[in-house]
Each structure stands twice: as C-alpha cells, then as structure tokens.
Amino acid sequence: MMHPPAWSVTVRDIAWYTWPAWLAAVMFSMLAGVLVVAVETPASAEGSSQARHALRPSPLSPHDYDHLLQQAAVRHLPVDVDWRLLKAIVWKESTFNPRARSPAGAMGLMQLMPGTARHLGLRGDEVFDPARNIDAGARYVAEMLGYWRQVSDPERMRLAMASYNWGIGNVRRSVRESGASTPRWSAVRPKAPTETRDYVYRVLEQRLRQEQAQDHRPGQGPQRPALPLPKQFARPW
After folding, report:
1. Domain residue spans of the chain
2. Between 20 and 30 A from 229 (CA), which of 80, 88, 133, 203?
3. Is pLDDT at 177 greater than 80 in this prediction?
4. Phi/psi of residue 108, each to 5°?
5. Contact predicate 95/110, CB 8 Å
6. What are the b/e assignments for 146-155, b being 16+ CB within 10 Å?
7. Residue 109's pLDDT is what?
8. Residue 17: band (very low, low, confident or very high) from pLDDT cuts 50, 70, 90
C-alpha cells in the first residue's frame, strides 16, 4: 500500500487549519450587519417621524383668525362692541388652538362646554371647526351681553365675561345674594372663583391692548372702529 508523500495536504487538513479564519470572517460580517442596523434604524425612525410631522398642518398665527372673528362680531355682537373682544376671549381660552380641550371638557377656540355647544347647534366635531366654533362662541357672548344689557359699561362687560367663564346662573345668584339694587361686578367678585376674577381682568386687559395697538389688517373682512376702553376697566383689585 502506497502512502502519500509527506508534503501532500488533504481537504481535511485545509479545513482544520482554515476554519478559525472562516469563523472570524463570519463573525465579523454578522457584527458589521448589527452595527449597520444599529446606526441606520434611528435615522430611519427619525425620517419617518419627520415625514409624519411634515404631513401635519402648520399652526396658524392669531391674525389668521381675524376675518372669522370680524365676521362673527358683525353678525352677532352689539354695534358698540369691538370684534377684538372675541379675539381676547380666544387668546385667553385656547391661545388660538382650534383643537384645544380642557380637563373640564371645554372644546375648540372659544372653549365651549358640550352642553353649550349643543345649545348653540354644534354637533360632533363641528366644535373643532374654527369658523363654526367662533360663530357659536360669538352668539354665546352676545347672549351674555344681552342678559346684562340694562347695566352700563364697564359693569355690563365685566358681568358678561364673568358669565361666559363661570356660568350665567352663578353670576345671577351672586348678584341676587349680594342684595345690590343694581348688578355690579364689585358685588359678584368676592363670591367668584379666583379663575373667574382673573379671567375677567385678563380678557378685558387683552382687549384693551389690542385696541391700543390698532391690531387689524386692511382688507380682511368687515372692520369696526376700535372703541376706547373706559378707565374703569383698570383692575380694581
């Protein structure tokens, strides 16, 4: 039986001596793949997030609602009430976020409670539509102003804003319990929640700031002249 020469190499020999290198190559490839996935996945996720963000509508500026506020004021508010009152209410209620929803359930730009929204004819998601919400809110403001129409300004405005925030029933009860012969905010204020006291001041202060700044742009819907705010609107507390 002939033996192979001492220098000959079999397939088994090749496998025996080369498997460490082969295994190292496989492990390196697997590690490289893991690194690629680890590096690329966040970028892909970020890209998807950016794409989703790009599909969202850009937030509107406060001025973009001016024409809706002006039109609603002309339709519903008394002629002596400037449209900037509505803008001040939207500023305080929702900071111009049409999808705003409060913990208490108030919704939309003018933060209408569900019962109030139904009373004003809004159904379902209509309350989040800027035009419908502003129109309904303006009608509600007009109701509050109308209820106190026998009261002279600035008391009418203060009582109307307190009624919008706290509810007409609460304000009426406070007026009645105060025993005042003429409804006055000064008689209601001690009984009103801190939120309502702050609300009345903030809304009327913001309205005054807007009127002083002549905050309007020509050509965007009907305009009303800015009416001077009486000095009595200055915060008395």
Report:
1. 11-50, 62-233
2. 133
3. yes
4. 80, -175
5. no
6. ebbeebebbb
7. 98
8. low
**Could you report the per-residue pLDDT of 53-105, keeping only the tens digit for each?**
333 444 577 889 999 999 999 999 999 999 999 999 999 999 999 999 999 99
Where b means 16+ CB within 10 Å and e means fewer, 124-136 reads eeebbebebbbbb
> Exactly one of 93, 126, 143, 177 is catalytic; which is it?
93
- Of the segments 16-20, 129-133, 214-218, 222-226, which one has the largest average pLDDT value? 129-133
Which residue do the tokens 């007009």 mark?
142
Active site residue 155: no
DSSP class of residue 110? T
Q: Which residue pairs, CB below 8 angstroms and at least 24 apart, start in 164-167?
A: 164/89, 164/140, 165/195, 165/196, 165/199, 165/200, 166/192, 166/193, 166/196
Q: Which CATH number is 62-233 given?
A: 1.10.530.10
Percent of residues in the chain assigned helix, strand, coil, to nearest 5 = 65, 0, 35
Asked whether the CA dihedral 73, 87, 133, 113 is positive or negative, the reply is negative
How far is Cα 190 from Cα 192, in angstroms, rounded to an integer? 6
